[in-house]
Structures are given as C-alpha cells and as structure tokens.
Amino acid sequence: MRTGVIIFVTSGAEPMARTADLEGLETRADYPGANETCLACSAAEVSWGWWRMVARGLRRVECVAARYDERHRAIVTRGAPVRLFG
C-alpha cells in the first residue's frame, strides 16, 4: 500500500516561508517508509495535500505535526502521525 505523509508545520512557519531553499528542507524532512511527503503550513494546505495524494493513488495518508528550527534550518517532527480519512 502506497503511503503519504503530510508534515504540518505548526510553529516557525514564518521564518521557513522566507527561506529560499524549501526543496532542500522538504528533502531533509522525508519520513521513513513514505512514498511521498508534503509540507503544509495551514489547515488548507493539509487538506490540499491530502486531496493531491489521494488523487495520485496513495491509499494511506498520515499527518504529523512539526516545528521549524531556524537555528539548525531543520524541520523537527513531534508526536505520532495521525491517519487522515475522508
């Protein structure tokens, strides 16, 4: 079963938005075992990411909260991922 993970940045999204290298950040935020990852900074982006993954054929989509650490230029996940249904 193909799996997708949406990384929902709940704190530190403003400094991250000013960062020019968002592709590098997304690569470093890859989640083990996921076929596809998506960064989101708002609830609307989470729902768009879920729709995009389902439309691309991913059958299991999870969302995990994260924060952006500006000092280390890294996205740090926190907590366990939650499976999204719809």
Architecture overview:
A hairpin with a 4-residue loop joins strand 3 and strand 4. It contains three helices and four strands. The chain is of the alpha/beta class. The model has no long low-confidence stretch (mean pLDDT 82). It has helices at residues 13-17, 22-28, 43-55; strands at 3-11, 36-40, 60-69, 74-84. It starts with a strand and ends with a strand.
Strand content: 35-45%
| Helical residues, percent | 25-40%
Q: Specify Rg, calculated over alpha carbons.
A: 12 Å
- Output the helix-strand order: EHHEHEE
How many separate domains make up the residues? 1
Q: What structural class is derived from the secondary structure elements?
A: alpha/beta
| Low-pLDDT segments, ≥5 res | none
Distance between the termini: 17 Å
Please give the order of strands in the largest beta sheet: 2-1-3-4
User: What would you call the shape?
Assistant: globular
- Largest sheet features: 4 strands, mixed
Number of contiguous helices: 3
Q: Report the strand count.
A: 4
Summarize model confidence as the mean pLDDT: 82
